[in-house]
Structures are given as C-alpha cells and as structure tokens.
Write a structure and sequence with these properties.
3 domains; Rossmann fold; 18 strands; 18 helices; alpha/beta; five-stranded parallel β-sheet; 46% helix; Helicase, Ruva Protein, domain 3; single chain
C-alpha cells in the first residue's frame, strides 16, 4: 500500500469504470468517493473535500464540462481530469480551456498514466494553494504595514522615517499603546539597507523576568539548572539585521547595563560563556512611557537612554489627529469586509458620528478592533450604532473621557464624500502635485490615481 495523500472525486456512470478507478486510486493511498451523475457529484463534493476530480465527459443528467465549471467555481484550486470515449478535439479543447480542466484523457487509458496525472494534478493544486496563500499574506502584510494619515503629527513621523531609515542610527519610538509604534519600526527596517537581514522583535514586558537574560543573551550548556544545550540569544539572531526592543523601560535595570555593554562593544557574551561573540545590528527601541518620567522613576538608565536615543520619533495619539479618522475608517472597513467576506457597504450616520467624536483611549488599535467587530456582527448592509462596542452605546464619548470634538462639529456626509473631500483638500494643499498629495494622504501614488478616478476627480486642476 502506497502512502499518497489527497481526496479524489470520481464521477462516471459506468460502474465498472468507476469501481476500477476507485481500486486503482485506493491502492496508491488516495481517499476516493465515487458518484455516477452531476447531481450526486455536487452533493458529494460538498461533503468529501476533494482536491482532484476525475469526471466523465458524458453523464446521464448533464455535461461533464458544465460539472467541471461548477466544481471549479466552488473551489478554484480543484484540479479536474476529464475522461471521454468520444475523442472530439473540439470538446477536448473546450474542456481544457473553457471549463478549466487540468487534462483530458481518452478511454481506454493506462492506469499508470492516470496515476501520474493525478499526482501532477495534486502537485499543481498544492502550488496554486501555496501561491494564493502567499499573495494573501503579502497583501495582509502590505495593508497592515501601511501608515495612514494626513495630519501634521503623522506626517512628521513619516518624514523622519524617510530621513533616517537608511542610516544605522539607533531610534527610540515614543507613543501611547495602540498608536502604531511597531508599524513605524517595521517601516524603518523595510526601508533600511538591512531589510534583507533578520528582523527580530522582543517585547520586554512579555518576557518572564527569570528567562529574559537567557532569551536576550543566550546561554551555554550547563550554565544553570535546565540548560541542557547551547542556546543562541535574540541579540545574536539579529546579527546583520535590525532589533526592536519593544517597551524597553520594562527591562530590568541589571539587564539594561548588560545591553549597554553590548551596544558599546558590539559583542554579546552568552550566560556561562567565557568569550563574547561579535554582533552587528541596528537597534530600534519603543516605549509607551515618557522617557523623562522613566528616568525619574529609575525605569530607564540614563546612560542607556543616551545610547538608544540618537533619533526619537513621537507617534501622536489618535485624539490629536482626528482628521485622519475618516481615512482610517475607510481603510479598515475595506480590509475587514474583504477579509471576512462580508457585504458591508458603509456606516450609518449616527454610528459614524460616534466614531468621529469618541476619544479613542486605545488609539488606532482600538479603532481597528471596533471596525473589525462591527463588520463581523452587523446583520445589514451598513454598520449601525448597535454594532459598535459597548463604550459607544450609552454616550457620544467614552465615560470619563472628554470628547475630542463635539458631535455637532462632526462633518456630515458619507465615507465616500469625506474621502473625496480629503483627496481634494490634499491636492489643493500641494497645488495638485500628485506625489506630494499621495504622501500627505499616506497613500501610494498609484492608489491616489485609482481613488481620483473612482471619485471623478480630474488629473489636472480644473
């Protein structure tokens, strides 16, 4: 018995042929489900999760080509092999091109040839699935890594990133939780000369205090109880790339001293090791605390602060860049309705006014989570106030937090209208310089052109 994996649907109304195909495929380890009609095939396909199908061209209740089209409509990665005793060249061409069949095989056929085709079909399917998943991951990564906004504060962030990304200077990113500090760090690495090297992220607040030294610096076998083998630390793993120390003020003071030594000597000594290992990485740190307060409270060593703070980037809270909320709402709404396959066309006016008047103590992350939740729970074509999280239900703002803008001051209009107005405002501000307007809006230039066409905005100033 061979150990091939994969489920195959066989559709042939001649029982002897269907049984023969089943026995041949099962002898090679495949899971096989046989049917003899279009109707039964569609019912079986919904249950058996087939990865490949062998379909007879002529079936008692329909055409094998139409069945092939329907099966591939339901699962575009499904690979279909059409078998026929009717050696029509026209039909064969239609099967492979029009219906999307993987191959056409004429009866009678050699079982070994069929098995080879099934293996090739499943290999092709795996490749298609891998490529689809990769494209989805890259699209998600691109969407998640895009820093959106046109407010002056976020534009200063983008300008600083562009100015220092390709340098090796240490950078300290300062901002409240949820403002997008990690996105800024990602942008610094991706635009640097080290983008082809490792990108190691360490959340200093998440590492247990009794393990943080070993995780950061590594250890040798026998260095302490439980150290049964050598371990490479995260600082070593960052060699040749960039290192993010997230929430650096949460690192124990004694380890801050060791980190300072690493930065000064450009070498790491594992716990229990006699010699240090040279390392070369670009350090990016972040904190949600005021560095001055952290220094006063003893949470951050002054000598380390001077070393990590060659360049500082302050990421503004969302309440200080509320003009960016329409842009962020549109981006998150489009992202999550595509991700979850929900037909959500917009947001009802009252719900939208609450989004714009809310204080957002959790910043962009809170807005992102609120929009994803609303897309998932809404039952209609538009998000309503009831679809938003609890803090939005009882009042215009979060209890105990002053509104950033009175509800009467919130601009009226749909998301489409506000997006169009934002683009026109950016174009006017930049005297219709498309590249500058795209940068102001936090968009790529092709995206700006696409949105201008969508909103009927001319390419030249009227």
């Amino acid at each position: 018995m061979k150990t091939n994996t994969g489920a195959v649907l066989v559709v042939d109304d001649e029982k002897t042929i269907a049984d023969g195909l089943r026995l041949t495929l099962e002898s090679e380890g495949y899971a096989v489900h046989t049917t003899g009609s279009v109707r039964d095939a569609l019912a079986a396909f919904a249950q058996c999760e087939a990865e490949a199908a062998i379909v007879d061209l002529m079936l008692p209740d329909g055409d094998g080509l139409n069945l092939t089209r329907e099966l591939r409509r339901r699962d575009p990665s499904l690979q279909v092999i059409v078998i026929t005793a009717y050696g029509s060249v026209r039909k064969a061409m239609e099967a492979t091109k029009g219906a999307g069949a993987f191959h056409v095989l004429e009866k009678p056929f050699d079982p070994d040839e069929l098995l080879g085709l099934v293996r090739s079909a499943l290999d092709h399917r795996r490749l298609v699935v891998e490529n689809t998943n990769l494209r989805r991951r890259l699209a998600d990564r691109a969407a998640d890594s895009e820093i959106l906004g046109q407010a002056p504060g976020i534009q200063r962030v983008l300008e600083t990133v562009a100015a220092v990304a390709d340098a090796d200077a240490n950078v300290l990113i300062i901002g409240e939780s949820g403002t997008g500090k990690e996105l800024v760090a990602d942008a610094l690495h991706e635009r640097s000369r080290r983008r082809g090297g490792p990108w190691v992220k360490i959340n200093c607040a998440a590492l247990p205090k009794d393990l943080i030294e070993s995780e950061l610096f590594g250890h040798t076998r026998g260095a302490f109880t439980g150290a049964t083998s050598d371990k490479t630390g995260l600082l070593e793993e960052a060699d040749g790339g960039s290192l993010l120390l997230d929430e650096i003020t949460e690192m124990p003071a004694e380890l801050q001293a060791k980190l300072l030594r690493v930065l000064e000597e450009r070498a790491v000594r594992r716990v229990g090791a006699a010699k240090a290992v040279p390392v070369d990485f670009r350090l990016i740190s972040s904190t949600n605390r005021s560095p001055e307060a952290a220094l006063r409270e003893g949470r951050l060593r002054q000598d380390l602060f001077f070393r990590i703070n060659t360049v500082s980037i302050d990421v503004p809270p969302l309440r200080e860049r509320r003009e960016d909320i329409p842009i962020l709402v549109r981006a998150f709404l489009e992202r999550y309705r595509a991700k979850h396959g929900r037909d959500v066309g917009g947001i009802e006016p009252e719900a939208y006014r609450r989004l714009l008047s809310y204080a957002w103590p959790g910043n962009v992350r809170e807005l992102q989570n609120a929009l994803e939740r609303a897309v998932l729970v809404t039952r209609g074509p538009q998000i309503t106030l009831e679809d938003l999280p609890e803090p939005f239900q009882g009042a215009d703002t979060e209890p105990g937090v002053a509104p950033t803008v009175a509800p009467s001051e919130v601009p009226v209009g749909s998301l489409e209208e506000i997006e169009r107005a934002s683009i026109l405002r950016a174009l006017e501000t930049t005297k219709w310089n498309k590249q500058a307007a795209a940068a102001l809006l936090g968009l790529r230039r092709p995206t700006l052109y696409s949105k201008m066409r969508k909103h009927g905005i001319p390419q030249r100033r009227p």
